[in-house]
Amino acid sequence: MASTLLNPNPSNELSRYYGTVAVAGAALLGGALYYYFNQKAQPASYASPTLIDYKNQTREVKNGDGARINSIALTDKPLTCFYEDGRTLYELFLKAQKVSNNGDYLGWKPSPNEPYKWLKYSECAKAAEHFGSGLIELGLEPAKETFIGIYARNRPEWVLTDVACHTYSYINVPLYDTLGLEAISFILLQTQLRLVVCDDSEKAIQIMNTKSSLEYVIIIEKITDEARAKAAEVNMKVFSFDDVKEIGKKNLKAPIPPSKDDLSTICYTSGTTGAPKGAMITHGNVVSIASSMLVYIKNSGLVKEGQERYISYLPLAHMFERVCQTVVLSLGGSIGFYQGDVKKLVDDIKEVQPTIFCTVPRLLNRIYSKITENLDNASALKKAIFKVAFAQKEKEVMKGIVRSDGMFDFAFKQIRQSLGGKAKFIISGSAPISPEVLHFLRIVCGCHVLEGYGATETGGACGVQVPGETTVGNVGPPFLCSLYKLGDVPEMDLVSKRDNKGEILIAGANIFKGYYKDEEKTKAALDSDGWYHTGDIGSFADNGTLKIVDRVKNIFKLQQGEYIAPEKIENLYVRSKYVAQVFVYGNSYKSTLVSVIVPEQTVIEEWARENNLELNMEKLCANKELKKVILADITKIGKEGGLKGFELAKDVYLHHDLFSVENGLLTPTMKSKRNEMQKYFKSQIDEMYKNSD
Question: For residue 156, which of 193, 133, 129, 127 has the smallest C-alpha distance?
Fold first, then answer.
């Protein structure tokens, strides 16, 4: 299964890096197998090829003031590309056509009852050239300062517009619903966008109702009479996506490729406060990240060019998803888009059968909760089978052995089928994942399950755990394109060299060029030496990996002077089967913590049935007995997780509605808006403290 490497045409730069249960039912047989697998070494052919010393995953660079680089790097210079002929996203697309042998690229489901339909790489190249040529014919000059807006859900036309931008050196500016119309209007005015590609007429009308410099609106789906009337009213021209392609087909232009230092996108971040910030991301930024990931997954020996599949459901308007798709593109892989309904995502996954699956902790937490809930309700025999199989697989995983065809893997077949049955890599990003959940999934999924780290300003990612990693609670070493170091935080009395704790600073080939037309915020985020200040507090583990402690702004003191990192506590509490979401709060004038919890509906309803109560979430959340049950469970989990007494919530308020982007309590990347939560639950927080005084 191992391969020593890597690519037949490595760049000169890359060459400086290393190629680089019925069984349980029979007690006697079960015991014998347990003894056998406990004593006998696993076949070496199943082990992940050694890419890195897992005990020393980073090293300090010379004269770097504590800066660390991935230990497999042979020089202190960050990696910029994997392929010599793939330094821009346009060049990667051209290369993908060849390595895929003109295979499937973009897939979608025309209707719920139809199978996925696929476009070949050559068809996508032609469509992108036609669309890009159509934009030129409309009067949009192909230049490094020409912006193209995209206001659509994940779908083939999103990517085709993106490829067209790469082909003719346009810069794309993604928009998305959760920004809100006020923020969208701000972006339109700041970038002076002349053209936006929209999903449908409804979004087009929203755009037309804003103040802007828009001249053209391109609609992918049917153009309604209302949209045409609105366009005429505001003096804009409206075309269908196919119209523009047809215009370009009749007026075909030669590609005008970008350079690696040209901007690829301006990705606007919707933070917790203020106007959105437009992060300027270059082709080289994105390529360097994808290149770093390729070093890992190609060395695994598991991927094959032209044969990998990916399911796209995370928003393409965010850099994490675009970087993930760039990795798949670099392999000449296929990308299938979900139908747009999360409730149908499992069905889409089963049909696409992704080999690479990028996701977020919220989905993985729900998978974990569902598995544990089913186990709780299983028969004694099934529980015994699962327990024996789990114990044996855990031993393999802790040795760095990753496979799905061992003797005990039958116990996890159903779980793996729910993920398509062919997953090789599952990568979690956007927010921290519980160490317990990560470890559990590594055992039952039979593939590499890794946690990554990054931000829009780092191009979407700056590091991920190395395949074969057995530890949890860290986000691995930096990518080969990045460097990490810790900065002092005077207001928290943190001295990085003394405490091995501080603000995480990141430099390298993936770091953004600054915020568009916002020098003040750029200077606040990027120092004069090119280090991006993340606002995260971190430390280096003994094996050199990075551990995220919390946010600088999130950490607070209690009355007795103890520092509290709420995300650490929240990551423990979500292990409870009763907990879907949690917000931990502390007041510096108080000595205790309180918590707002959104219960897991399926578990709570089961509890209600057992207690002959009405299946009404709002009424159940007001039930004092349920509150006692949940408080006792999270307290138990907190103590088992090593929380000190002052880190345990002394009271909880049960809330019946999920925190969401729509109700203003989560950012579009599913991070908690703590200031908003504090305001939203002020009366409940005050009441909890009043009762504890």
Answer: 127
550 residue type, one letter? D
- At position 128, the amino acid (one-letter code) is A
pTM for the whole thing?
A: 0.80
Tokens of 223: 């153009």
Question: What's the rounded Cα separation, in Å, for the pair 458 and 476?
Answer: 16
Residues in contact with 549: Cβ distance below 8 Å, sequence separation at least 6, in sequence order: 501, 536, 537, 538, 539, 555, 565, 568
% pLDDT > 70, the chain:
91
- Short-list 79, 101, 78, 58, CA closest to 10: 79
Query: What is the third-level CATH fold of 1-549?
Result: Rossmann fold (3.40.50)
CA–CA dist 268, 150 (Å, integer): 12
Residue 626, CB half-sphere, CA atoms under 13 Å: how many?
Answer: 32
Helices 89-99 and 283-299, axial angle in degrees (round to 10): 40
Residue 606: count of CB within 10 angstroms of its CB: 16
The DSSP H or E segment spanning 150 is: strand 147-151
Tens-digit pLDDT profile for residues 261-308: 999 999 998 654 568 899 999 999 999 999 999 999 998 889 999 999
Distances (CA, A) of 564 to 28, 131, 265, 499, 638: 50, 53, 37, 16, 14
**Separation CA 236–CA 226 (nearest Å):** 13
Which DSSP string corresponds to 177-193?
A: GGG-HHHHHHHHHHHT-
3-state DSSP call for residue 101? coil
Q: Which residues contact 637 (CB under 8 A, 6 or more apart)?
A: 572, 573, 575, 576
Written as six digits, the tokens of 63 are 């004269």
| Strand arrangement of the beta sheet that strand 68-70 belongs to | 58-60, 68-70, 482-487, 502-508, 532-540, 546-551
Report the topology of domain 556-692: GMP Synthetase; Chain A, domain 3 (3.30.300)
For the chain, the 3-state helix, strand and coil shares in percent, each to the nearest 5, are 40, 20, 40
Identify the DSSP state of 530: S
Beta bridge partners of 218: 197, 239
Question: Residue ranges per domain, the chain?
Answer: 1-549, 556-692
Token pair of 253 as six digits: 């232009």
Cβ distance 54 to 470 under 8 Å?
A: yes
Is residue 94 classed as helix, strand or coil in its secondary structure? helix
3-state secondary structure (DSSP) of residue 75: coil
CA distances from 624 to 653, 658, 691 (A): 10, 20, 14
pLDDT tens digits, 387-439: 999 999 999 999 988 888 888 899 999 999 999 999 999 999 887 888 889 99
Determine the residue type at 151: Y
CB atoms within 10 A of CB 97: 17
Say what angle helices 361-376 and 601-610 make with each other, to 10 degrees: 20
DSSP-assigned states of every residue in 41-105? PPPGGGBPP--S-TT--EEEPTTSTT-EEETTBSSSSPP--SBTT-SSHHHHHHHHHHHTTS-EE
The position carrying tokens 């409309």 is 138
User: What is the three-class DSSP state of 293?
Assistant: helix
- Which DSSP symbol is given to 343? G
The candidate with the shortest Cα–Cα distance to 304, out of 348, 353, 357, 356, is 356
Listed in sequence order, the residues at least 6 apart from 180 whose beta carbon sits closer than 8 Å to its beta carbon are none
Task: List, in sequence order, the alpha helices (H) in 215-318.
Answer: 225-233, 241-250, 283-299
Number of CB atoms found within 10 A of residue 470's CB: 14
Alpha helices in 536-600 (DSSP H): 566-573
The residue written with tokens 């014919």 in the block is 137
> CB of 539 within 8 A of CB of 567?
no
Q: d(Cα 388, Cα 254) in Å, to the nearest integer?
A: 62
Amino acid at 37: F
CB distance 518 to 278 below 8 Å: yes
Nearest to 593 by CA among 567, 624, 629, 625: 567
Task: Indicate the SS3 state at residue 546.
Answer: strand
